[in-house]
Amino acid sequence: MEEIENQRMTHIAVERNRRKQMNESCCAQGDQASIIGGAINFVKELEQLLQTMEAHKKTKQEPADVSGFSSSPFAEFFAFPQYSTRAPATEEESVVDQNQWSMADIEVTMVETHANLKILSKKRPRQLLKMVAGLQALRLSVLHLNVTTVDQLVLYSVSVKVEEGCHLNTVDEIAAAVNQMLHRIHEEETAFSQN
C-alpha cells in the first residue's frame, strides 16, 4: 500500500513539474495572443507549402491549361468560387458569366470581421503591389498573404480584416469588389503597354 502511495506522489510531483515547465515556456515566448499568432502563421506557411507541392505535382502529371478552371493546378483549392474563368457548362451559366465576367478565379470565405480570399490569375507585372493597395483602399487590412506560382499562373491566399467603415459586408460583395479591382489593374496595364 505504501508503494502505491509513493507512486501516486511521484506522479503528482512529475505532473506538477511538467505544468510548471510548460507555463514558464509559454511566458518566455510571450502572451497568449503571440502564441496564437505564431500558430496561425505556422498553419499559413503549411498551407502555402501544400499549395505549392500540389500545384507542382499536378503540372507534372498533366500540362496546365490556363483557360480551363478544372485543369488548373490550383483547381482543388477552390470549393465554391464566386467568380471563375472556366467556360460555362450551360447557356444559363453563360448569361450569368456575361454579367460577372471574371479576370480571375475568386473565392471568399468570411468569419465575423475576418475574410480569406483565394485569387487565381495570370501573372501580371506589379499586380501584387496594386492588389494590396486596392485592398487597403477598400478598407480590407491584409493580415497574411501567401503567393504561389506555377508557370504563368499565380495563386494569392490573402487573410484580411474588414475594417470599420468598410461597406463590404458579404463574401459576394468582397468577391465583386476584388474582381472589379482586378479589371482596373488589367485595364491600367493594357493602357500603359499601348503608350
Average pLDDT, all residues: 77
Termini separation (Å)?
92 Å
Based on secondary structure, the structural category is alpha+beta
Q: Tell me the name of the CATH class of the domain at 64-194.
A: Alpha Beta
Widest β-sheet, arrangement of strands:
1-2-4-3
Uncertain segments are 64-70, 93-99
Q: What is the total tally of β strands? A: 4
Order of SSEs: HHHEEHEEH
Overall morphology: elongated
Question: What is the CATH topology descriptor of the domain at 64-194?
Answer: Alpha-Beta Plaits
Query: Major sheet: size, sense and barrel closure?
Result: 4 strands, antiparallel
Helix-residue proportion: 40-55%
- In CATH, the architecture of the domain at 64-194 is 2-Layer Sandwich
Radius of gyration: 23 Å
CATH superfamily heading of the domain at 64-194: ACT domain
Keywords: DNA-binding, Nucleus, Transcription, Transcription regulation
Domain Plant bHLH transcription factor ACT-like: 105-181
Subcellular location: Nucleus
Protein name: Plant bHLH transcription factor ACT-like domain-containing protein
Write structural notes for this entry.
The chain is α+β, with helices and mostly antiparallel strands. It has a domain at about 65-195: Alpha-Beta Plaits. It contains five helices and four strands, in the order αααββαββα. Strands 1-2-4-3 form a four-stranded antiparallel beta sheet, sandwiched between helices. A hairpin with a 2-residue loop joins strand 3 and strand 4. Residues about 65-70 and about 95-100 have low confidence and may be disordered. This is Plant bHLH transcription factor ACT-like domain-containing protein.
